[in-house]
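not sure who needs this but someone in the group chat was asking about RNA methyltransferase from Riccia fluitans so here u go. i didnt clean anything up, its just raw.
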Amino acid sequence: MDTRTVEPETMFFEENQIRALNTVETSAAFSYSMAEQGRVDITKSIHCLVSPILKAQAGEVCCLLDYRQYTVPRACFLGVVGKLQLAGQIARAAAIFRIDEIVVYDDSEKSARLSAKSRKWSECAADTGSAFLARLLQFLETPQYLRKSLYTMHTSLKYAGMLPPIDPPHHLRQSEWLPYREGVVLEKRPDDGGSFVNVGIIKDVRISQFIKAGTRVTVAMGEDSNYKRLFGKKLKAVPPTDPREKTGLYWGFSVRLAPSLSAVFTECPFEDGYDHIIGTSEHGEQPNSADLEIPYFRHLLVVFGGVTGLEHSLKEDNSLEVEEVSYLFDRYLNVCPDQGSRTIRTEEAILIALQYLQNPIQRACSRR
């Protein structure tokens, strides 16, 4: 069973989470996942966001059923994060479009060195570059009732409380019920084995597994919506993909850091990599969204560059041996032709691209 270790001072870079595919120690990426709600027009979710690459994973169940077993991640470049607001806008976009993973990558060696330095997680030192954005994104994705247990005071999070909540389904209020809840394993232990978990309700619940204290877990709460009847039972911690795959619930996003554009691909958490990769650029082809055909996929990745574009990211990455950046992708698209501004900011490109790709992705998933 995968678990996500959430010891406060090593929170982001030493996660071993039960909550998503295995979280990889990288610079920052975002992935987007689609949900099937029992009909062909599937609702989408996001896995990757910053300097974004978008990926989708489809599972064994046909998308016409009440299951969602495919995700769409996306990764985006962010050289230096200057504004706290940017993280809030990206996190909000992720929740709105049901993104499952965010991958943030550095577009230059200098930026990568700064991010690597930040990985030491000094409690007082501020993060730089990708690490700053990644920490904020992870903080915003965490349910409010778990934040004090999982995070210590940190300079980068000093003003995070000013950001708007993303309010996805797993950010439950105390009185709300869903068949799953996020929780953190406590130090105290039941006499008859297992673990106590704080899941944000009146009393702590018990799970049958013995899991290290400080680990964030997804707990299956059963079918009884009366929490008082749960306190005498032993519940079970489950993989964080269960809410999405078994009930179609959007369950937040994981965050992955990548030191370069090439690392977004080579450090992919999926054994078979990404089936279909889409790059976005003002120099790409300009098909109408209604005419764009995407093949059926298990893992779809959509990649965004920074202000200078993916072309700059290619020049700065010595591991990539291609002449044209478009050769890295199955499709290289301009999702906003005839733009009036010289540049489109990353957070703007994310919203534009996700809306543009909605119908093509739905059509692709309905072909199975």
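also The helical segments are 84-96, 109-118, 129-141, 144-150, 242-247, 261-266, 309-316, 346-365. if thats useful
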